[in-house]
Amino acid sequence: MEGRIAAMKFALASYGTRGDVEPCLAVGIELLRRGHEVRMAVPPDLVGFAESIGLAVVAYGPDARRWQDLHRELLTHLRRNPWKVRDLRRLWRDDWQLFTRSWRETSTTLTSMADGADLLFTGVIGELAAANVAEFHAIPLATLHTYPMRANGQLAPFLPAPLARSAVTVAEWPNWLMTKKLEDAQRRELGLPKAKGLPSRRIAERGSLEIQGYDEICFPGLPAEWTKWKDQRPFVGALTMELATEADDDVASWVANGAPPILFGFGSMPVESASDTLAMISSTCAQLDQRALVVSGGTDFSGVPHSGDIKVVGTLNLAAAFPTCRAVVHHGGSGTTAASLRAGVPTLILSSWPDQALWGYVVNRLNVGETRRFSTTTRETLIADLRTILAPQYAAQAREVASQMSKPTESVATVADLLEKSARSRRVG
């Protein structure tokens, strides 16, 4: 940017697991580097991580891992035991109580933290509560979307685009009606008038930035579809810090001493059975004569036996490790998917959540990999899927897609530029 930007105050808030929070932290570090004041809010279980990279943070909401585990248990019961109404009611009540607590703490924390700030930047979770706080302080709001959240014809490729757009809009109504009492209470406490209409429409009409944290190549028809919102919905690519870990050197040495491995990683969400999963990976790789690098993440694989051709590590710099692998198998988180696409290696996504299934569709449509639900994965399907993506044409296409992906440092810098511009303009309704 030309000239020196006067120091400003930014309030940043991001709720969720590390994959949800890291993009916001990356932006916070960049804003600090530029000389701005950054106030940051994250879940209690990620305060230590945020502080370790140099950010001053406050905690808000319940532990993200606790909420994630409860929400997963509820969805599992809905899928497997829908007739157990008493258990479902209990889980729903507990889940709603955590959601209510998170909304209230988001409002309280951000109202204080954003006082005197030039802009409020937030992730998807808690976006509406943050939008009301920004309106109260009359400051710009910027949100980070890690997939196309607003009405569009890309999320349901099996439907005609107009019908798909209508379906996204219709689906937003029950979500808003369910949370309307919480929003009404928040707005009363803030002295704001009662809200009318869908939140997404209100946020857009206020001129808020809705930053698309993924690359255009993933949804090629979307930029043209959103021409009207071009300035408000810029595509910047995935945001990550690509942090080094203690295991990186050891893993690099192990990789160099043999054939390129297949990397398996399932993010912060633990798999249902660590022993069964590692046994399936071991058997599959033995059948295919491949080595395996397993990144445990949120799963405890300690004490689970495995062969010498399998290496298990807790965390890893995926951006550094992925390019050294023959293929990667993961859960389909937006950041992990972006890392695998940037690395130019074939990908197999085994999803557990709807947004992960969406990224599986993207990988499949780009012809750089395959996808299926983790719950339906067996040794036989894993062998078949890996044989498919290990074919030469997948590696060639993966390299071609990688050449069109954004670079992480450029993505973070672009977001910082956008936030500075929005804060300066004070474009609020």
**Cα-based radius of gyration, to the nearest Å:** 22 Å
Number of domains: 2
What is the structural class?
A: alpha/beta
Order of helices and strands: EHEHEHHEHEHHEHHEHEEHEHEHEHHH
Q: Got a strand count?
A: 12
Corresponding CATH architecture of the largest domain: 3-Layer(aba) Sandwich
Instruction: Return the CATH class of the largest domain.
Output: Alpha Beta
Compact overview of the structure:
The protein is of the alpha/beta class and 429 residues long.
Give the tags.
429 residues; alpha/beta; Rossmann fold; 2 domains; six-stranded parallel sheet; 49% helix
Structure description:
Strand 7 (262-265), helix 10 and strand 8 (292-295) form a beta-alpha-beta unit. This protein folds into two domains: 9-64 and 98-238 and 408-425, Rossmann fold (3-Layer(aba) Sandwich); 248-402, Rossmann fold. The longest helix has 30 residues, at 161-190. The chain has 16 helices and twelve strands. Helix 4 runs parallel beside helix 5. Helices cover 49% and strands 12% of the residues. By secondary structure, the protein is α/β, with parallel strands linked by helices. The strands form two sheets. A six-stranded parallel beta sheet has the order 3-2-1-4-5-6, with helices on both faces. Strands 9-8-7-10-11-12 form a six-stranded parallel beta sheet, sandwiched between helices.
